[in-house]
Design goal:
Elements: H1 2-58, E1 62-68, H2 75-90, H3 101-118, H4 122-130, E2 143-146, E3 151-154, H5 163-176, E4 182-187, E5 198-205, H6 212-222, E6 233-237, H7 244-253
Amino acid sequence: MANIFHSAYNTTGRGRQPQNRARGAWQDGSEEQDQDGELLQMVARAVIMQGDSINVIRRATGWVFWVRSGDHSILPMLAELATKWHDAAQAETISPARVSLRVALFWGIIAHLKDRHAQMNQENKAFALKSGWMTETGAWNYQRWNPSHQSLEVDPERPALTQAQAQESLELLLKLINGDTITRFTARRELHADMQGTVAFQADVGLRAKGSEELYQQLELLRGLALFQIIGTSFRQEGYGRPPLIRAIQKLLR
């Protein structure tokens, strides 16, 4: 009988002890969860701060290009160029370290525009004049976005660029484009010949490489020029806006 009571006592005791430990563990876990939550918030804020710092730097180097699908679009050309580059890289007929895809794509855009510009006939020029891209004298207008009308309009604050000046700028760009001056040129979507809509490309110009400053100045000269409309392309400098991922993190912190 004593053994029975002794066993019962030990069983009851063992039953209570885990409950006490469980409460202690729960309390410790709650504190750890609070600490983890605070740590996550600190990390999230640090990520946002770092993202903002990077945005400031990218404002001095970054550009965004938009290429539209449709008639005279260069998207099929870019998709074919990317495919040929990958095939050549796999066949080891080119070295990706010497001829990068970013350089091939960016160079392809400027070279294609230069050739199409040089081959414009009277019908093409008449269409450009009717569309407001060119002046009566054949110079290229600059355009700006009108938020009220949700459309592009002629920018009266920037004098038109002559065809000779535009062609000279494109030729200079082709001489300046290399793996050091263009540090990034990537599409936000996978390129394929039959893609529809508008494809955005992220571009970065080198900071210290020889020719980088001159290349940046040429992009600034051509920014907003209606000449790029003949290949369905436009571009501008990277803004200060936070990217979607950083905005999502910021939203969760509120």
